[in-house]
Amino acid sequence: NAGVTQTPKFQVLKTGQSMTLQCAQDMNHEYMSWYRQDPGMGLRLIHYSVGAGITDQGEVPNGYNVSRSTTEDFPLRLLSAAPSQTSVYFCASSYRLRGPGELFFGEGSRLTVL
Amino acid sequence: KNEVEQSPQNLTAQEGEFITINCSYSVGISALHWLQQHPGGGIVSLFMLSSGKKKHGRLIATINIQEKHSSLHITASHPRDSAVYICAVRPAGSARQLTFGSGTQLTVLP
To answer: Using a CB-CB distance cutoff of 8 angstroms, which residues of chain B are in contact with residue A45?
Structure first.
């Protein structure tokens, strides 16, 4: 099993550009989520999904879109990047449907918006 | 005010020392997680607990639900334990989301 695969690892964007961070897991997990990690702050939940076709907003959803067309994939889209979105992004998945159980994280994506 | 507070923020220890990292939270919870973030950035789950105590190798996690407090202990610390340790809670009223502490940076010197 590859676990949680997250790409790209690094990305530099200009303000206003769009991009998609990819996240895939091969553990048949129902729960998938995206977090951002900023210096001095804890991980903050952007969006999450409890199954294919079901997504919901987390603590900091503005500026981000997600979709969950399959159990395996949960991409995060930035439609018009802003410097405030410079951060490290983590995708995580969990088996348990009713709330996150043990979490499995991707390796992270470092995004810089100029 | 952050709902999850960790202490200390930074900790330096000598190899072999017994280490304690604390996590206090302000809301009722259904579970608490301890995570480890390696210097390269990867995050792994160490423990998920809702009561009592769990042990894995040299790591021990305890939780006191009444006092809203959890501790992570590392016995016989080693330089490879150097990492950021993160506490996260699952609020009782928000079972699908976690609230994270800002982490404790641990450095173990040889």
So the answer is: 97-98
Sequence-separated (6 or more) residues with CB below 8 Å from residue A34: A21, A23, A45, A46, A47, A48, A58, A64, A66, A74, A76, A89, A90, A91, A92
Q: Does B49 touch chain A (CB under 8 A)?
A: no
β-bridge pairing A31-37 and A44-51: antiparallel
A41/B102 touch (CB, cutoff 8 Å), yes or no: yes
Q: Suggest the residue from B2, B85, B98 to mutate for an interface test with chain A (most A CBs closer than 10 A).
A: B98
Asked if B30 has any chain A CB less than 8 Å from its own CB, the reply is: yes
Q: What is the pLDDT of residues A50-91, one digit of tens each?
A: 899 999 999 999 999 999 999 999 999 999 999 999 999 999
- pLDDT by residue for chain B (110 residues), tens digit each? 568 999 999 999 999 999 999 999 998 898 999 999 998 788 999 999 999 999 999 999 999 999 999 999 999 999 999 999 999 998 887 767 889 999 999 999 99
